[in-house]
Amino acid sequence: MAARPIYVEIDVQAEIEKVWSYTQQPQLHEQWDLRFSSIIYNDKLPGESVQTFTYATKVMPGVRVSGWGKSKGTHEKESGEKTSALHFGTDQLISPIAEGKGYWKYIPHEKGVTFLTQYDYDVRFGWAGKVADRLFRPLMGWGTALSFDVLKRWIESGESPKTQYRRFFSFYAICFLFSFVWFYQGLVPKVITRHPLEISMLTQLAPLTGAQAAEAIFWIGIAELVFAGFWLIPKLQKYLLQLQIAVFPLLTLSALVAAPSAAIAPFNVITLNITLWVLSIIGLLLHDQLPTAKSCKRKRGKTA
Question: Which residue did the predictor score with more confidence, 47 or 119?
Fold first, then answer.
């Protein structure tokens, strides 16, 4: 079964010329498009209709994918609709994309512009590349949609892409941190070691024997491992932050009641829980201002 082309559509409340400028000027385009770190236009000869360019994408520190592109011209209808066709590719084997084609379309309407793209590409490495593309293609679609929302916010509110991406990645860094903390706290001191301090604190708070508390600690650890997994589900993250803001003060108080000496230990429960509580507040404040791929249509006539 052939892979479906990537399609992304978004409405922008702005004049078509402004949207055209933010998407066609390379120094502006490279700021909002997550797929590119730099875009450089080559000199075009007089009368030449094809604009060639080179691009680079920073995959990770020290690793970049460079490629070539051709903007194959624009077409403007009487209605004001514009289209820009694109041909692109790279010879670098690190890139799963070998060569592709697509277009951008700008459709003016009463409230602004519908900006959309559709593109497809060939993968390298034969069947292995096609298998890998089952994971890579959705990631490309998500990155395109997220970039379109960043562009929309930039044009409509004036907030720079750099600020938006800083907020976005800061938020998810906080979420991954919480996932790690709950995973570690559930696995190491509870499931693996059933630490004596954990058992002692529980027997101080509940009428349990040592053996019963040890068994309970194990299952509490399992619950914390599950809770750690919830942090990787975007739909739940806002509610988890709200839950932590309410619960961390209670957990801190319970720990101090069960083991007052813990308050003076190095890296103690007070400093840890207050740190996580403040990070929960920061994460919640960031959440409502995040750019999101959900604002885009990912299929014609349908919202993703």
Answer: 119
